[in-house]
Amino acid sequence: MPRKILALACAVVGLHIIEALTLGTSTLGSFLANWLQILACGFAAFMAFGASRRGHGLSRPFWLIFGGSVTVWGLANLGWMYYEVVLHIEPPATSVVRYLFGLESVLIAVALFLDQDKDSSRIDTESTLISSRSESSFS
Fold this sequence. Notes:
mainly alpha, single chain
């Protein structure tokens, strides 16, 4: 199984390189580049949610939040593709698409700030904001 996963990842990267070299920033090139990125996000989210199901303690909420962040990135990329391919413009500064890309970063930060001293598989409010260890360092 790991070799198949590596082969799929290499195929997506290889196709992306070929697409960038041959099609560039054309409409078809933009469509294929975004589609390959959405495919990669879907695969990464699938793997992260699978790791969350298999994990114990802190690893469960970490992989769950990370999988959510990759899912948000894929949805944001889908919106970006709509603007580029259908509307032929870049998303405006106030577009939900740009906020989704920012939310992805916030979710990764939340995953990184999970309190590793709490060996619980559920996500509590304190853990989603900031870990108690980091809070004590600000005092």
